[in-house]
């Protein structure tokens, strides 16, 4: 004897699953791009060379006089560490009054941000709307990254080489790596709109192969075009 | 075991001589495929970081925790009624079997918005022990559920098959609840 009701149950659950999924895909996040809610959040930001977005972010002010006061940033420093919830890593490179930052989850989400330094504060922004605010607190950098609808807190320390922020660019692929103090690294590579985990980087001989291209990884100092 | 209702009675009292292992294997393979499929999707899909919020709750996690807890409560009803059906506890009556069936259906149905949020917004993650356990059991649970539903369609399965499947489903649900709501309450 066979019973059909478990199959009906199964079908009902599958249908409910599908409906929930479709509803989710149709409803775009507040402030997100309607129509493409499922696209990777930060992929476009690293696929094309960009002008500095700093002009849009930086509010003109007396940066020079502020940045000379006590307890401001060293002229050149990179901070790196994991976010508070450990879902990803963030690195902020500061050079003079310029700053560049990179956030990634080591898997598929990444964002390159540019910004400026004003005294002890850094404000950064990516082309796709990810923002970060950070403040120097003693010798570490404390702040919040806002990506999509998520707020990720971080408190990160200065990173001495080989720890730091690295980036490789090819004609198709852009890769970002954050190398942490303990030698572990978190990276994402993006080709077109497809983001995946980055290949292993050896900071001593920073050459990697991605999608058939041989790329050189370069340390990010903070004044680069991203 | 006198008032044992139809489906479970047949499965529970089936003699080894008339049983077939083939359909159980097929059900197992199907369940495994579902588990792997969910895992692969959760790993490859880029988590969006957001999903439709279920109205009436203070936050996304609160909504998920509440729904998961309702599912877990139905899970408790499941094991109690199952024990009754199999005569392990003195729980008899025509209502036991329908209650078992419907509490199970509701439990899984209620879990659907939760798992869709998990899969769509968060994905399969492995950044710490709790999270990877939760991710694995999430995939496991729906595979076990498929396994059980397919076993239920036939009466000629070996009599260990259905309790095994039911046990796997409840184990999955419990582990999911502990690694999510338990953590949510403590944290």
Explain how this protein is built.
The complex is a heterodimer of chains A (226) and B (187). Chain A is mainly beta and 226 residues long. Chain A folds into two domains: 1-38, no CATH class; 43-219, no CATH class. Chain A has three helices and 14 strands. Chain A is elongated, with a radius of gyration of 21 Å. With 187 residues, chain B is mostly helical. Chain B has one domain. Chain B contains six helices and no strands. Chain B has helices spanning 6-13, 22-44, 60-85, 96-122, 129-152, 161-186. In chain B, helix 3 (60-85) runs antiparallel to helix 4 (96-122) and helix 3 (60-85) packs antiparallel against helix 6. The interface between A and B is medium-sized, with 35 and 34 residues.
Protein traits:
heterodimer; A: 226 residues; mainly beta; 2 domains; eight-stranded antiparallel beta barrel; six-stranded antiparallel sheet; 14 strands; 14% helix; B: 187 residues; mainly alpha; 6 helices; globular; disordered N terminus
Quick take:
The complex is a heterodimer of chains A (about 230) and B (about 190). Chain A is mainly beta and about 230 residues long.
Beta strands of chain A, count: 14
- Reading the helices and strands of chain B in chain order gives HHHHHH
- How many β-strand runs of chain B? 0
Placed side by side, the strands forming the largest sheet of chain A appear as 1-2-3-4-5-6-7-8
Counting copies of identical and different chains, the oligomeric state is heterodimer
Give the tally of structural domains of chain B: 1
Tell me the Rg of chain B in angstroms: 18 Å
Topology:
The complex is a heterodimer of chains A (226) and B (187).
Chain A: H1 5-26, H2 54-57, H3 63-67, E1 76-82, E2 89-95, E3 98-104, E4 110-118, E5 121-125, E6 131-137, E7 140-147, E8 150-158, E9 164-169, E10 173-179, E11 185-191, E12 194-197, E13 207-210, E14 213-219
Antiparallel strand pairs in A: 1-2, 1-8, 2-3, 3-4, 4-5, 5-6, 6-7, 7-8, 9-10, 9-14, 10-11, 11-12, 13-14
Chain B: H1 6-13, H2 22-44, H3 60-85, H4 96-122, H5 129-152, H6 161-186
Helix pairs in contact in B: 2-5, 3-4, 3-6, 5-6
